[in-house]
UniProtKB/TrEMBL annotation:
<protein>
    <recommendedName>
        <fullName>Tetratricopeptide repeat protein</fullName>
    </recommendedName>
</protein>
<dbReference type="InterPro" id="IPR011990">
    <property type="entry name" value="TPR-like_helical_dom_sf"/>
</dbReference>
<dbReference type="InterPro" id="IPR019734">
    <property type="entry name" value="TPR_rpt"/>
</dbReference>
<feature type="repeat" description="TPR">
    <location>
        <begin position="207"/>
        <end position="240"/>
    </location>
</feature>
<dbReference type="Pfam" id="PF13432">
    <property type="entry name" value="TPR_16"/>
</dbReference>
<keyword id="KW-0802">TPR repeat</keyword>
Length: 310
């Protein structure tokens, strides 16, 4: 599930506003200084990024050796900065310079974000671990950690991290969708189906959620239900040939061979593995050279040979 349309943790506005980031500062700074940061987040929320950055700079200019304003400025500019350059700067910072726990937490948190954007997945996870060891109620760090595990296909480790991240009550449906996918990949089939059923209609334009819901129903041999969601996925996103193979195979199972033919042709023309073999078997049924039952037997034999070769 981890893709740009579904996991865009760079949009930190809602996370930062009225969150762990600002609340502890009320006791440490005067009303004026706190209001600078509070206003910066508000201006950022309203799309006034230049003014937000100015307010961060004003805060930084008023305090000595305090880095909160710089971290907020980094969050605001995260989409535009040169990530590798900023990472290089972060890697040269000695964490001992930070005078407050909050600054140290934010240092490791934004370092994790930068590593994740740069696809340094293992380094991002390590930074999340440091954040959690310092402040285990910063639940967004668990979310990034879970995504790192999911990208490594370590779904048994991603699952508990996703569950913990839900305690933050932030982007709940999105986290549940990713959790549902990890359940599916971990073969926790009942959990995957139950959770997909709860969230699928909340993401009507997300083809992966629709497709994965179809896969859940397929695992329980509810083939017509599965096709409903494969249809939705392909209506949204028609350029994934493997989706046609999956739907075509299910159409063969329910003996709708004419409909399966077009899907298998698309998959075969895009060199999807097994598509050409399935197409030939399906054509034999359409031409009445073999029955649907014999076709299923041939498919099973084909799949056994593939498994044995691997």
């Amino acid at each position: 599930m981890t893709n740009d349309e579904f996991f865009n943790f760079l949009d930190l506005k809602r996370f930062l506003n009225h969150s762990f980031f600002l609340n502890p500062l009320k006791e440490n700074y005067t009303d004026y200084l706190f209001q600078l940061l509070d206003r910066a987040v508000d201006e950022w929320e309203n799309g006034e990024t230049e003014l937000a950055v100015q307010l961060c700079d004003e805060f930084t200019g008023q305090v000595k050796d305090i880095y909160i304003g710089e971290f907020l400025k980094l969050a605001i500019q995260l989409k535009e900065i040169d990530v590798e350059e900023k990472l290089s700067a972060f890697e040269n910072i000695n964490p001992d310079i930070f005078k407050t726990k909050l600054e140290l937490v934010l240092f490791h948190f934004f370092k994790a974000c930068l590593y994740f954007v740069n696809y340094d997945i293992d380094e991002a996870r390590k930074e999340c671990e440091k954040v959690i060891s310092l402040e285990n109620s910063l639940y967004y760090a668990y979310y990034i950690k879970a995504q790192c595990y999911a990208l490594r296909e370590l779904h048994h480790l991603a699952i508990p991290a996703y569950i913990t991240s839900l305690k933050g009550n932030y982007r709940v449906d999105e986290i549940k969708a990713n959790l549902a996918y990890s359940y599916l990949r971990n073969k926790d089939n009942w959990k995957a189906l139950r959770l997909h059923k709860k969230i699928v209609d909340k993401f009507p334009e997300n083809y992966k959620v629709q497709y994965n819901t179809g896969l859940c129903y397929k695992r329980f041999k509810k083939y017509r239900k599965a096709i409903k969601y494969f249809d939705r996925a392909l209506k949204i996103h028609q350029s994934t040939p493997s989706f046609y193979l999956t739907r075509g195979r299910i159409l063969m199972k329910i003996k709708e061979h004419e409909k399966a033919q077009n899907d298998l042709l698309i998959a075969a023309s895009n060199n999807v593995p097994l598509a050409e073999d399935l197409l030939k078997i399906n054509e034999l049924v359409i031409s009445r050279n073999i029955s649907s039952r014999k076709a299923e037997n041939r498919v099973r034999d084909l799949l056994k040979r593939v498994v044995n070769r691997s």
